[in-house]
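[Q] Does anyone have a clean structure-token version of this?
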Amino acid sequence: MKKAILKHALNQLNKKTSTISFQGINKLPEPVQRYLRLVLTKGSESTYYCKMHYGGYFRTDSKRPWFSIKGYYHYLVDKPAFYWRGKIKPLPILSITARDYYYKGKGEVIINLYSLISIDRSSGSDIDKASLLRFLHIS
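[A] Here you go.
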């Protein structure tokens, strides 16, 4: 899935870039109009792809300890899609990776031990909906 998302982003480089216009913005609710006018600059180039690296802390339960997490996102804006990968090391010799994506209306979550041994894999309509909400929330 990561390759398909990156291929789409690369294809966009060869197309003419579009610029931000406020045409049609009056049809949106007033708070949305204010927000868009505040954060966007008319005439600036539109974003179609973003890659974000991050680090922080993660825990699986409120009674469990915090673990350091590092990861990255790939986002497509013109075609709702993302690919996320994160890694935690609960012990010096143990690593757990998770991968989550949303592409062409489908989502999937995979959790692996040492990036090789599958611990959990989830997909289906509930994951599709949750992945779309995650895309909308983070975008």
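[Q] Thanks! Anything notable?
[A] The beta strands are 49-58, 67-76, 81-91, 94-103, 106-113, 117-123.
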